[in-house]
Amino acid sequence: MMREVAASPPSARLVVDSPERMRELGRKLAKLLRAGDLVMLTGELGAGKTTLTRGLGEGLGVRGAVTSPTFVIARVHPSLGDGPPLLHVDAYRLSGGLDEMEDLDLDVSLPESVIVVEWGEGRIEELTEDRLQLVIHRAVGDTTDEVRHVTLTGLGERWAGIDLSVLSA
């Protein structure tokens, strides 16, 4: 008897050794993104989530300085050209899961925007099956180590067949 085996989702593991390289990764990643894409960033405080998003903003060609939206929860950065706007969300202070996220109307913004959600794990998975998950690991404790280990995983039909290893070039 034959069984269909689900293909594992596309993924890549990268080592990033400085904040500038994290921004560069964001700029490269922007070339793979299009309107309707959801990017979920997970990592400790200071891991580089906002730095990566700053690079994404540069790569997408959006207006405004990309800074952490921790206290405003979400910031919209309109495109300076014909690309999609960037909606940058920080879900760190949201405790209500998808209910609180629904108040932000992300599902309304998703089709025409690139949405990046920091601290979205356990909060936004129900928004869409198609998403790119980035997990950023850094050394913790009293360290000045700039090295980050980034794991990217593309989930859903949107990311099937996308070669994420091109980001390490």
Structural account:
The chain has 169 residues and is an alpha/beta fold. The chain is 20% helix and 25% strand. A seven-stranded mixed β-sheet has the order 1-7-6-2-5-4-3, with helices on one face. The longest helix is centred in the N-terminal third of the chain and has 12 residues, at 19-30.
What's a concise summary of this model?
This protein has 169 residues and is of the alpha/beta class. The protein has helices at 19-30, 49-60, 98-103, 106-109; strands at 11-16, 38-43, 74-77, 86-90, 114-118, 131-138, 148-155.
Task: Tell me the series of helices and strands, N- to C-terminal.
Answer: EHEHEEHHEEE
Poorly predicted ranges (pLDDT <50, ≥5 residues)?
A: none
N-to-C span: 42 Å
Main beta-sheet strand count, sense and barrel state: 7 strands, mixed
Helix content percent band: 10-25%
* Fraction of residues in β-strands: 15-25%
Helices and strands, with pairings:
Blueprint: E1 11-16, H1 19-30, E2 38-43, H2 49-60, E3 74-77, E4 86-90, H3 98-103, H4 106-109, E5 114-118, E6 131-138, E7 148-155
Parallel strand pairs: 2-5, 2-6, 4-5
Antiparallel strand pairs: 1-7, 3-4, 6-7
